[in-house]
Design brief:
The protein has 16 helices and 27 strands. It is of the alpha/beta class and 548 residues long. It comes from Vanilla planifolia (Vanilla).
Length: 548
């Protein structure tokens, strides 16, 4: 549903705001995209970016077992698997393949093979329950599933499954080294669906967002534009390969000729495993959710590792406090924390790209190339100007086509002019930097005031006594809702409820004060680092620790 038209209108070169259209324009150079009328899959686009002959350094390294694939081997397996899929399975262009597997060097091979054939990839969390998976299968209607022995039993019994850890699949990777015959492989166009990504579900039931090849190409084209030369990055991928962030950065890194290091084998990527992999493979950049950045900025263990190769941390998925970013950059001098903002539905929306922008850590960077935005008053629908907070709406070639099997949700997320509502309360400042205030659905309604939990969380996380914190609405009849804080103390800290309340009260307006506190061992978060507020709300309403 992205708007592909190029409109000519004037806008402020500093903020990107057009008074005429009441929209914000990206301050990045526009990146031309391949025409929609010419066949082009994302794998074809990726190969077009790579040198010929292919580079011989590693495309993928599994840090859990040191198994790696060079670029020539990677694409040889992609060709073999593509031919095998056409020969031995009913999968064809436009059909859906459900994928349920932990990270492995051959999972990206599967992704590229399916995408090259025009098969729609639907990767799901391998720890999802059988009931959760049954719903996702009903939504996506896959022809076949690819799983491993440990996950296959959770899938509905009526769905055919190919096991990725079986001798059959191993033969698929190596027995057909020729590309698939042109008579069997249909042409793939940029507007064809490439993937169905499941949204995080932090504010409700999982939804299935349909993304096209154009979406993936548009985001990679932007990253390619930023490259100064042929330098190869060694990227540590901390996000899971099934998650929209991990899925894209995996594809993007292969297209740019980088080496991707990840922790596979079904192992949980602990903090110790992560810093060891960063040191062993001399990673130059990493993707990281905020909790990892926070821990690296505070941990004593990390000081025992040589991370001198690291230059860039690409941080997204959830808000990162200014204090945490500054603490990290003070410890790792010369390493840039480049915050970005996006979503499963909207793709990449904003990011920081250089040292100057990375100094603006209260923001999530400037609008990404080819993105237009407007900020709308959530009550009146009026388009707002510079510095005025409202719901962020976007038009972008990277945004989804819509939710699969949910027309009601589509009618709510897209307006009549094709603008996609993000559900986030934001504003854009006079220098074109995007500020996230909070999720609209998560705003606390105290009397006649709206209180953003994210603002209070940043205040709490600035305390040296607090390791982590989350704020939720707690019902109170007299005022509607009050802000309640869940707090994780720093090791050895003895702070109490009064300390927390007073610490916040000194820094915020009276209506924003914390009025209840509970101390917990950890804050529940999604794979992308988003606070699972619904879990905390359930705990607050049921646990005796939360009684007055």
């Amino acid at each position: 549903m992205a708007d592909e038209k190029t409109e000519k209108f004037s806008f402020d070169p500093r903020s990107g705001f057009s008074p005429e259209k009441k929209t914000f324009h990206s301050l990045r150079h526009r990146v031309p995209l391949p025409p929609l009328s010419i066949p082009l899959s994302f794998p074809s686009y990726a190969i077009s970016l790579l040198p010929s002959p292919l580079p011989h350094h590693s495309a993928l390294i599994d840090a859990s077992n040191s198994v790696s694939l060079s670029f020539p081997t990677f694409f040889a397996r992609v060709r073999s698997l593509s031919t095998s899929i056409l020969t031995h399975t009913p999968l064809r262009h436009g059909q859906v393949a459900f994928v349920l597997s932990p990270a492995d060097v051959d999972l990206p091979v599967l992704y590229f093979s399916l995408l090259s054939l025009g098969v729609v990839v639907a990767p799901a969390n391998p720890v999802a329950t059988a009931s959760e998976l049954a719903r996702l299968v009903r939504l996506t209607e896959p022809t076949i599933a690819f799983a491993v022995s440990a996950t296959a039993s959770h899938l509905p019994p009526c769905l055919p499954v190919i096991l990725l850890d079986s001798p059959q699949f191993r033969s698929f990777l190596n027995d057909n080294l020729q590309p698939p015959p042109s008579t069997a492989a249909a042409k793939v166009f940029p507007s064809d669906l490439a993937s169905i990504q499941f949204s995080s579900g932090t504010t409700g039931r999982l939804k299935a967002a349909a993304l096209t090849h154009r979406s993936l190409v548009a985001m990679t084209a932007g990253f390619r534009k930023l490259r100064d030369g042929p330098q190869t990055e060694i990227t540590f991928l901390s996000a899971p390969m099934f998650h929209s962030l991990g899925f894209f950065f995996l594809l993007n890194s292969v297209a740019l000729g980088d080496t991707v290091v990840f922790i596979g084998g079904g192992r949980k990527a602990t903090f110790s495993h992560t810093v060891q992999a960063l040191e062993t493979y001399r990673a130059t950049q990493m993707t990281a959710a905020p909790p990892l950045v926070v821990e690296m900025g505070r941990s004593v263990e990390v000081l025992r590792h040589d991370l001198s190769s690291l230059r860039i941390v690409l941080c997204g998925g959830a808000p990162l406090s200014e204090a945490a970013a500054e603490r990290f950059m003070a410890r790792f001098s010369g390493v840039l924390v480049c915050q970005g903002y996006g979503s499963t539905e909207g793709g990449g929306i904003s990011r920081m790209i250089d040292a100057e922008e990375c100094r603006r850590q209260k923001t999530v960077g400037r609008l990404t190339e080819n993105v237009r935005a407007k900020v709308v008053d959530p009550i009146t629908g009026e388009s707002l100007s510079v510095g005025q907070p409202g719901e962020l709406c976007i038009k972008s070639p990277a945004s989804m086509e819509g939710y699969v099997g949910d027309e009601e949700a589509n009618s709510m997320v897209f307006d009549s002019q094709g603008w996609m509502r993000t559900g986030d309360l934001c504003y854009i400042d006079e220098d074109g930097f995007l500020h996230i205030v909070d999720r609209l659905k998560e705003m606390i309604k105290y009397k006649a005031y709206q209180v953003p939990p994210a603002e209070l969380e940043q205040v709490l996380q600035s305390s040296p006594e607090i390791s982590d914190a989350a704020v939720i609405p707690f019902p109170q009849e007299e005022v509607g809702q009050i802000p309640m804080a869940f707090v994780v103390r720093q090791p050895g800290s003895k702070i109490n409820e009064a300390y927390v309340m007073n610490f916040v009260a000194k820094q915020v307006a009276p209506y924003k004060k914390i009025r209840r506190v509970a101390f917990v061992e950890a804050i529940p978060k999604s794979a992308a680092g988003k606070i699972l507020r619904k879990d905390l709300i359930a705990l607050a309403l049921s646990s005796p620790i939360c009684r007055l």
